[in-house]
Amino acid sequence: MTDSPGGKRGGKRERLVAGAAELVHRKGVAATSLADIAQASGVPVGNVYYYFKTKDDLLRAVIEAQVDQVEALLTGLADLPGPAERLKALVGQWERMRDVVARYGCPFGTLAADLDRRDDGLDVEAAGPIRRILDWAEDQLRALGAQDARELATTLFAGIQGGALLAGALRDPEVMSTQVRHLRQWIDTLARSRGRTSPNG
Q1: Domain range summary for the chain, segments of one domain joined by +
Q2: Can you give the pTM of this predicted structure?
């Protein structure tokens, strides 16, 4: 998993979405203009309106790209031998991008938080990638035989986001790595006990 969906290659629309994803992650939604996105994407600003009538339309495309990124990740994890291995590999994605997380936060969490105060539906859409991860983690935890799988999935992802938030606040990538190790140990404990365990207890 990368710090923003997609890459700069491809057609103009794809480049605009990738450029927007990177900029809103690093600068925030309010501080990112369509002109900024056009420049970062190497697309003339006049062409932006051919693909996206408004900034919100472009933000929706970024959210859709995040969902696609999550789906691709989860599809790849399906090749691992068991639910514990898949859950630990999921958590490990945040260690792989720990330097970016320590500077700009988790791309899913920061965008959802950035849009949280809106009430036009975009706030709900921004949580889509997180909901998909929660649904998947719930399925994996249920496969482990864990009770209250949804609650445990929420606890797991809260641990990821808490680690990302603290790593960013302290500008310390090692905080993210430490949290990932802790969560992996918790998953191993769950796999052994098949019971209800908290990563903080």
Answers
A1: 1-52, 63-192
A2: 0.89
